[in-house]
Amino acid sequence: MSSMKPGRRRFLKGSAALAGIAAGAGVPAAGAFGVPDERTPGTKYATEYGERSRFEAEATKRRHDYPQRPFPAKKLTPLQNSVGIITPNGLHFVADHYTPPDINPEEHRLLIHGMVERPLVFTVDELKRLPSESHIYFMECLANSNVKDRGGPVLDTVQELHGRTSCSEWTGVPLSILLDRAGVQTGGSWLLVEGADAGRFSYSIPMGKAMEDVLVAYGQNGEAVRPEQGYPLRLIVPGFEGPYNVKWLRRIKVVDQPYMTKVETILHGYLRPDQKGKALWFQFQMPPKSVITRPAGGQTLPGPGFYEITGLAWSGHGAIRKVEVSTDGGKNWKQAKLQEPVHSMAHTRFRLPWTWDGEEVIIQSRCFDDQGEAQPSLAEMNRKLGVTDEHWLKTSVSAYQFNAIQPWKISRDGSVHNAMFDSATLARAGSAPGGADHTEH
Ligand SMILES: Nc1nc2c(c(=O)[nH]1)N[C@H]1C(S)=C(S)[C@@H](COP(=O)(O)O)O[C@H]1N2
Ligand SMILES: [Mo]
Q1: Are residues 214 and 177 in contact, defined by beta-carbon separation less than 8 angstroms?
Q2: Ligand 1 atom at shortest distance from the alpha carbon of 195
Q3: Ligand minimally distant from the alpha carbon of residue 92
Q4: Which residues are CB-neighbours of 355 under 8 A, at least 6 positions away?
Q5: Residue ranges per domain, the chain?
Q6: Distances (CA, A) of 202 to 109, 113, 144, 238, 255
Q7: Ligand 1 atom 24, closest CA
Q8: In a designed cystine with 367, which of 124, 313, 322, 356 is the match (CB 3.0 to 4.6 A)?
């Protein structure tokens, strides 16, 4: 029976062994190889709609509670368990600034007015009669990948760090069709777009983008947009920062300038450290980013041996052209395989076969898009902004498009941690990764 003993070495050689089994005479009973045969007959499906296996409850947890922090629980996509490029609707991250509404689609209306020839009001059914399109796009909060939350410790898991990005197939009516019907007047160069939530979340969108590829979406991955994603209508602004994608869409006003709404100024301005008194606003596209999702911060490798390194890359500027992975702390880079088809402004899955020798190692990925943009290292990003590593640790910089290369450290015990900052930097900034013993300053 010693040959059935599970072991690290065995797993690697196992592929040859398995091939032997498959080629062997007849089909042996699985039990002979120690494969349990435990199907429970008559499994009941719980609801009409269906649900994931009860054994997946932990793996598909979107909720992230921070017991040590005064913030409400966040709903972040568990990227560590994602496969392929599509985010299941129940796992899309959620970013709400106000109390969300509960909308009956029969009573809902979309108003288009302002600098137009003909103000228009649409019901949801009227919209669905118009020509529609479906596209796969990522959506990313501009606060994604921040290294810490306000007052909290440095984040350590891939879900906490990068779980504010999701990717769906969105279906809806091109906004250009609606604007053409309304007839945009000369000088109408921006849109003020408003949601139906308690605080009437509003954002300014440049007309050029609106005419290019913006969708008034009613569909998400083959069904109605989820309530948390803006049911029954939301705007999809491909590649742009998350907040442009206004949920529970109720009003589009054609205007002649950006309106500098509360969210886009107070909440989403980023004070430039290099130019006192100046802020970054209206950055539009999210820059190229990639992150290894397996093995990633928060996971533990059971032992040395073969692992497929896999992760996601995306860019608000276009399609991902190349992803490179380093498994030696950034000295050498190998080109990862991209899962086809690669969609523009969508999550792109990359994979690289790898064998871990059990020693401490740092793995990381970097990506390049088809517009010539490359994902920067933290050092490159710091140089561009004129800051040091400590800048990111001192405060939460939640309104910056942080896209530095994410290094993960795999320790000899198999645990994987955020290695964005070295321990000396963390000590100077008084922050340790992940620890619950953190005291607030
Ligand atoms: N009406 C409305 N739209 C909104 C928001 C909001 O709070 N209200 N949040 C915005 C922000 S900041 C982001 S990142 C995205 C998140 O979309 P999601 O919650 O579907 O993931 O929606 C945007 N649209
Ligand atoms: Mo956001």
Answers
A1: no
A2: 1
A3: 1
A4: 12, 304, 305, 306, 307
A5: 89-268, 289-429
A6: 16, 15, 20, 17, 13
A7: 246
A8: 313
d(CA 317, CA 369): 7
pLDDT tens per residue across span 350-390: 999 999 999 999 999 999 999 999 999 999 999 988 899 98
Residue 230: which of 105, 132, 348, 392 has the closest Cα?
105
User: 165 phi and psi, to 5 degrees?
Assistant: -135, 140
Beta carbon of 229 within 6 Å of any ligand 1 atom: yes
Query: 143 CA distance to ligand 2 centroid (A)?
Result: 6
Tokens linked to 90: 């129940």
**Ligand 1 in reach of 160 Cβ (< 6 A):** no
Integer angstrom CA distances of residue 267 from 66, 201, 202, 394, 436 = 22, 12, 12, 18, 27
**Torsion-angle region of residue 98: left (phi > 0), alpha (psi -120 to 50) or beta?**
beta
| Strand 109-114 with 249-255, pairing | parallel
Task: Provide the CATH number for the domain formed by 289-429 in this structure.
Answer: 2.60.40.650
Calculate how far, in angstroms, residue 93's C-alpha sits from the geometric centre of ligand 2: 10
Kindly tell me the number of DSSP H helices and DSSP E strands found in the chain: 9, 23
pLDDT in tens, 11-56: 444 444 444 444 445 666 777 787 876 666 666 666 789 888 989 9
CA gap 193, 201 in Å, rounded = 8
Residues 6+ apart with CB under 8 A from 114: 188, 192, 252, 253, 254, 255
Does residue 286 have its Cβ closer than 6 Å to ligand 1? no
Backbone angles phi, psi at 367, to 5 degrees: -130, 165
Per-residue pLDDT tens for 306-340? 999 999 999 999 999 999 999 999 999 999 999 99
What region does 211 belong to: left with phi over 0, alpha with psi -120 to 50, or beta? Answer: alpha
CATH code that applies to domain 89-268: 3.90.420.10
